[in-house]
Design brief:
The protein has helices spanning 3-13, 34-49, 63-68, 72-75, 78-83; strands spanning 16-20, 23-27. By secondary structure, the protein is mostly helical.
Length: 84
Amino acid sequence: MTLPELLAGLADAGVMVAVVDGKLRYGPKDQLTPDLAAALRTHRAAILAQTQCSECRRELTTPETKALGICLRCMSSEHYTRTV
């Protein structure tokens, strides 16, 4: 199962997924099928990576930073302004 298929399957099953303090949280757990649970384990790192800054690995908290994949702190740093 690909990541987009997993995310669609979770939505269809009514399972919400969130990253809290760097950990993957999901529920309601009784809606999670064995196939979806296995796919979550497989794609855990990819899901977490989508919610972390590509520079410092802090959690991205706004839609804008999530779209860019970089937090505001790193965005304002000299390194980021030089490499963009």
